[in-house]
Amino acid sequence: MARPVIVTGFEPFGGEKSNASWEAVRLLPDEVEGHPIHKIKLPVVFGASGDIVESAIRELEPAAVLSVGEAGGRTCVTPERVAVNRMVARIPDNDGAQPQGDPVVEGGPDAYLSTLPLDDAVSAMSAAGVPSKVSDTAGLYVCNQVMYRVLHAVRSCGLKIPAGFAHVPYTPIQTVRKPERASLSSELSSAGLYSILITSLA
Amino acid sequence: MARPVIVTGFEPFGGEKSNASWEAVRLLPDEVEGHPIHKIKLPVVFGASGDIVESAIRELEPAAVLSVGEAGGRTCVTPERVAVNRMVARIPDNDGAQPQGDPVVEGGPDAYLSTLPLDDAVSAMSAAGVPSKVSDTAGLYVCNQVMYRVLHAVRSCGLKIPAGFAHVPYTPIQTVRKPERASLSSELSSAGLYSILITSLA
Amino acid sequence: MARPVIVTGFEPFGGEKSNASWEAVRLLPDEVEGHPIHKIKLPVVFGASGDIVESAIRELEPAAVLSVGEAGGRTCVTPERVAVNRMVARIPDNDGAQPQGDPVVEGGPDAYLSTLPLDDAVSAMSAAGVPSKVSDTAGLYVCNQVMYRVLHAVRSCGLKIPAGFAHVPYTPIQTVRKPERASLSSELSSAGLYSILITSLA
Amino acid sequence: MARPVIVTGFEPFGGEKSNASWEAVRLLPDEVEGHPIHKIKLPVVFGASGDIVESAIRELEPAAVLSVGEAGGRTCVTPERVAVNRMVARIPDNDGAQPQGDPVVEGGPDAYLSTLPLDDAVSAMSAAGVPSKVSDTAGLYVCNQVMYRVLHAVRSCGLKIPAGFAHVPYTPIQTVRKPERASLSSELSSAGLYSILITSLA
């Protein structure tokens, strides 16, 4: 059997009852291009979320890693270009931590560029009818921290694989109480993630 | 048989290949609460669009009228509060006309308030999982003109019926080439329109 | 001496320490084109604010009326096109009232169009270096109510004068604690109001 | 005499007649905390702009470097957190180049974090009445490239100095023809830059 692909989403946070990232991840099939998809639901907690995904990478030696987060307010699926070695939290994480500028990895490089084929992924999503664009900032909250930890672990393990992060918009149901925010159905977000995986494994 | 309900949508304009309003309208069933739904696709043309809907109102004596338009950039279904007796066009209509401040109806009142139950409609849409809010401006393009003509015709005919207008967002496919704009699936927009009709006929 | 021009601004509300509208109004000179400028600072209170401006109109028989309000989040000076006969408050006014759909004037027309020369005013502001555009909705809070009361009083008194409303953005100091909101200096907002007055009296 | 401080702004681009960054830079005094301010107007050209600022850094061994660019649409002064080793141009630069993903410096690190005291600078600007916040992305156009080149040169020269980049909004006059975009007066933007310099040299 081919090596697995790791795909992560997040548990709810910020008072939400669901997290659009996990809603999209769990709609993915169990396999892509012959690779089993290993799905992990991460806590919205600095440190712990990174530890979990790093352990999985070290253990599974995956063929690709795609971490996914929710970006309330965005209109489309946005693969991220870069993860920055800083943590800044506007609201506490689900464990109460609220870092104000600490590095993700002490002594790590200032940032890592995604190794996903960003432009090809956007082209594939567009062809599939999924609105998308590359994003140049993943923020500095738990999402960016997971992306940094993913790329740091992949680099540390000497893996030469496509790895990175994508944000998905709120689901429509999440915006019923904040109707001025954009949304995208989980089906479309999930289709976008699938296009990213297909493109990455091509 | 009960009197029909008139629901209108628009043909494409502004270089688009489809119009989100018609995509949502055509997904509506053929009947609501025992009333046949009479669907009309209107041209995006000042004057002509208003003439068509006015003729239909005079001829069919409907139980309700809901006109629908596309509001590119909006995030949710927005029933409109008021139609203003002015036409201002940033781009020409599909017949080349581009009024810059003319009244919709010479000598008509400055504006008409919607006679749809706006707050109840938003509550019903929210309960149905459709993001929505009341909008306080329908712009001054063909949409506002149709809404004004609808309310003017209803008033002129002495009909005491719920009548008004709702805007729906772009469909996702429309935003593939402008991914920074919000979208909503036609299924959800259509479900929202159905909630408005149910609420209006209650 | 020529008949006065009435210009109104508002006291602070919503937790703010100042109100951009009054900051702009108080920078206006005491006279324009030979007309004394009669400045009134209105309370952010439904009813009372309208009563005050209506009394002033009845008493002074002005040559023009320009009411001004603050529109947090807007980027430029926006003369308003229409006042709607409805009051809807997202937050209570400074007296605790929070109407949810009541008419401004029981039995009044659905709306009044501004009698200010809107397009000429925008042209004049642009020529003066003040960013501006016509707005198609004044909201339904105290600002819209004042605008409706102004136009209703002017009409009731049989005055044939330019009368209406303009919104101005936050001042820069107001946005220090909400830096993602746009601002405009009081000097520029005031220059914009002056251009509206000049244009209206031409 | 103390070592100079280098401050750069840009020439106009994108069809504009002025560039808000240079308008703000040229209002700075000639000295700050005893350091002469060495102002450079850079071309909006990939490569050449970086070469110019790198030469100045090597030649002058400055006490600090602050490069400044215009961010049309932003509302406040935004010191940038990170420069990324990628160039992506939506529109050609002033020399016709339009890179689509090339590195700024072949073989350079993926990104550099600003060495300016970002949080202190924002506090100082707020205290001075200048709306500001830290930005997490400088885009990938000529601005980001200059920031990367500045930080790369400072690192290469072994200088331990505060160095980085800040974006300023459009000036009001620039927004007269696009009034829905935010602006900030050059005086306030310049005051913000001065606060950044003071904070950096403290």
From TrEMBL, chains A, B, C, D:
Q: Matching NCBIfam families, A to Z?
A: PRK13197.1 (NF009676)
Its UniProt entry gives the catalysed reaction(s) as: Release of an N-terminal pyroglutamyl group from a polypeptide, the second amino acid generally not being Pro
Cite the EC number: 3.4.19.3
Functional summary from the UniProt entry: Removes 5-oxoproline from various penultimate amino acid residues except L-proline.
Tell me which residues this entry annotates as catalytic.
80, 143
Q: Which UniProt keywords apply?
A: Cytoplasm, Hydrolase, Protease, Thiol protease
Which protein is depicted? Pyroglutamyl-peptidase I
Q: Quick one: where is this thing mainly located?
A: cytoplasm
- Gene3D superfamilies membership: Peptidase C15, pyroglutamyl peptidase I-like
Q: Cite the PANTHER family for this sequence.
A: PROTEASE FAMILY C15 PYROGLUTAMYL-PEPTIDASE I-RELATED, PYROGLUTAMYL-PEPTIDASE I
The similarity annotation says: Belongs to the peptidase C15 family.
Q: Where does the record place it?
A: Cytoplasm
